[in-house]
Amino acid sequence: MEVILKFQYVIVIKSLVLILFGCQTSKKEIFELPEVRKNYIQKIEFKEAEFDIDTKSYHLYFSAEDYVYTISWRKKDSLIAESYRKGRVIEIFTYEQNKLSSKTKSRRGEFNPFYKEDIADNAEQTEDSIFYYLKNK
Q1: CA distances (Å), 105 to each of 6, 15, 35, 116, in order?
Q2: Is residue 8 domain-resident?
Q3: Residue 68: Cβ within 10 Å count
Q4: Is 38 inside any structural domain?
């Protein structure tokens, strides 16, 4: 009888763990970067970007009182990433072949992001992607 009760507790605990895990994995983070980008989309010009000799890439920075928005290119028509840093939180959208490939959130000084969302190769470029706006520019 005791064995059956212990077994039932194990099943209940495992079920709760699975439910909690499912809730955590289905939870989507809210990114502020797309909204911030709207403030600067008309000001984005490759010719204004600074070349970083160490990373061999170009960067364009936009600073406000409490945040920094950055865009990075490998070469003129090859966007690498855009980032948004406010306080200790950093949001980074990376691009491959001029398509949004991932969205991450991390804390300053930490190596791994606390949230990462990979975008499928064949996914439509939504308002999360800078190319959604640049194609109309």
Answers
A1: 41, 29, 15, 7
A2: no
A3: 14
A4: yes
According to DSSP, the residues that pair with 71 across neighbouring strands are: 60, 82
- Asked whether residue 22 is domain-assigned, the answer is no
Edge-to-edge strand order for the sheet containing 50-52?
Answer: 50-52, 57-63, 67-75, 78-86, 89-96, 99-107, 115-118
Phi, psi for 55 (deg, rounded to 5)? -95, -5
From first to last of its 137 residues, the chain has per-residue pLDDT tens of 555 545 454 454 555 444 544 444 456 789 999 999 999 999 988 899 999 999 899 999 999 999 999 999 998 888 999 999 999 999 999 999 889 999 999 999 888 999 999 988 777 778 888 887 776 55
| Residue whose entry in the numeric block shows the structure tokens 């470029």 | 125
Domain-embedded: residue 12? no
User: Domain range spanning residue 112?
Assistant: 30-134
How many domains does the structure of the chain reveal?
A: 1
Report yes or no on whether pTM surpasses 0.85. Answer: no
Could you tell me the two tokens for 22?
A: 């499912």
Interatomic CA distance for residues 26 and 38, integer angstroms: 27
CA distance 40 to 131: 14
